[in-house]
């Protein structure tokens, strides 16, 4: 019995009128996400000298293509955090030499965040092992199950 099932059984005993499928489903989603990050991604990121939050800043910059620059607003919207949280991440990454703040060519008052050569190298070195890890993590499912799970999660997130 996993934690979600145990919680659902306890709630069913205490509040039998409540539906338990949502309790189990959302509980398992949360548990899966926490385990993937804690047990699998964090060790890989730690080897690279990064944490999940920093990875979440560097990867959209790398995916943006040349010149690997985005506005702070684009970055914090992609990471779904506050602008204050983004500022502290950018400060750490800038001190580490992985990003730099540059003047925005379209707005004299604005700044763009650019991936440095070192930042690009860090992500390029890490993304292959990260995708291989993700591939291993979902390999307990058949390819058809992986496609179904992916489609269902997309539908769920679209509904949210």
TrEMBL record:
The keyword DNA-binding applies. PROSITE patterns: HTH_MARR_2. Residues 23-158 form the HTH marR-type domain. Keywords: DNA-binding, Transcription, Transcription regulation. Gene3D superfamilies: Winged helix-like DNA-binding domain superfamily/Winged helix DNA-binding domain. GO terms for molecular function: DNA binding; DNA-binding transcription factor activity. This is DNA-binding MarR family transcriptional regulator.
